[in-house]
Amino acid sequence: MSDLKMGPVETRFAEIIWDREPVGSTELVRLADEALGWKKSTTYTVLKRLCDRGIFQNEGGTVTSRLSRADYDTAQSQQFVEESFSGSLPAFITAFTRRKKLTEDEIAELQKLIDQNRR
């Protein structure tokens, strides 16, 4: 799962794809130039890297995701909890709430998730 990690610039590029997919590779070059100031070669290099990681695919000049933004976020969250808190969600929540108190709405939302997972 560590090969799914993206840096901040790769993430911005990925968001361009997720927001517009399916997107033609020519259009993607234009969008990356506008948003990131990238040349064609940089766009294709980064795209290839993300395709090799299994996040996107470029089939016949059309770029689509192999991993949705939600699935990517889920994988990153799971990896963070695993690496930083030995996989313990309660340990993560304890650490998180030491500095930021949960609102009543957040508590209700968490309780709803707990109740749904009990079933």
UniProtKB/TrEMBL annotation:
Keyword field: DNA-binding, Transcription, Transcription regulation
GO molecular function, one term: DNA binding
Domain of life: Bacteria
GO biological process annotation, one example: negative regulation of DNA-templated transcription
InterPro entries: BlaI_family (IPR005650), WH-like_DNA-bd_sf (IPR036388), WH_DNA-bd_sf (IPR036390)
Pfam families: Penicillinase_R
Family of the protein in this entry: Belongs to the BlaI transcriptional regulatory family.
Protein name listed in UniProt: BlaI/MecI/CopY family transcriptional regulator
Organism listed in the record: Dysosmobacter segnis
